[in-house]
Predict the structure.
Amino acid sequence: MSTVAALPFPYVFEPARSALVIIDMQRDFIEPGGFGETLGNDVGLLAAIVPACQRVLHAWRAAGALVVHTRESHAPDLSDCPPAKRLRGDPSLRIGDAGPMGRILVRGEPGNAIIDALAPAPGEIVIDKPGKGAFHATRLDAALRERGITHLVFMGVTTEVCVQTSMREANDRGYDCLLLEDCTESYFPRFKAATLEMMHAQGGIVGWTAPSVGVLTALTAVQVSGTEWMSSRA
């Protein structure tokens, strides 16, 4: 078992029964010209977390633990995008419209792809989700239970929308969830701060939050232990 210093108290997990869930690190949200920018947002805020996310992803892979990537995306005919979602607000481009990186939030379009720095590796789970939450209208829960996963470590964007929704959904399904504070971001910093407080309030009503350094340290210890065990068997 590995332990991470976290709020509201230490988070204990076993890498073999845990998954790293990377929420919506897509070009449409993070790169200039995507959907996030059409909504009037500064996408540079989200891009700033990429190096920290990379460090965790590389360490998680080195530990041999499960990785899950999600993409908020819709079918080309928008049959899974209700009008209430598509017509919300007053963006310069809406879901399904043609933008600089193809049709906004449509599967298979360039802008819908996960950024190169965090691109899925062969064998990693990729979930296309039509909603904010990673569990709504997807087979994520079934895929995790098939693999005996009990703990989820979350990264991604945006903190108060898709990340928070996914973590709340996971909590309702019985998973113990940790959100890495420096590996998530919002277009509105105050929303991120408020969300982190909500996650670990009242004794961890939704889950835990912690800086990523704790997970990196824990994963390093797992790798060292595994190397020592292999050496002793040689």
